[in-house]
Amino acid sequence: MGFGGGLVDPSRVPLVVRDGDAMGAAALTSPFGTTQLLAAGPAWEVRVVQSHARFTLGAQKPFAQFPSGSLDQDVDLGGQLARVSPRSLTWWTVRVGLGAELTFGRVTPFVDLLGDVQFGDGAVVVGATPAGYGSTSFAFVARGGLRLRLDRHLTMSLAGEVGLVGAPRFGATVLMGWVLPVK
Asked: Cβ of 85: how many Cβ atoms within 10 Å?
């Protein structure tokens, strides 16, 4: 368990209006007015390693980091200008991964290809009307990093990620874990 964070591109998330002003929201390509948002939150992973092959199942709960009102924009909605103000963007990511690792003493470099299923929620205000958004999407992420064995059962992993398909662009994780030797 630990923390993950990185840069995401909300314009690549297929947001669908859940409630609010559907006409106004449909005119927006990205209601969050940017192609780069910093996101961070808790991360959990369970991993099985067999013959240098890694199998990963995990979850992340990133929250977009932007001050309320910092991305306000005026948008033309069918000839009428409306103020669009993002309020929140968060999602659950379920991760499944395949990878490889090779241990050298206490240090283990690794690489993974992760498939992320993302369930997102967002809120904006269009004019004076709140609008809620939702999405379900998929992303591929390439990850590489190092796992350091701190003692017999405790490890720490540092990893960097780059998005290949979908909303994630760049990311990093710091995870602390326990080794449960199974024979």
From this structure: 19
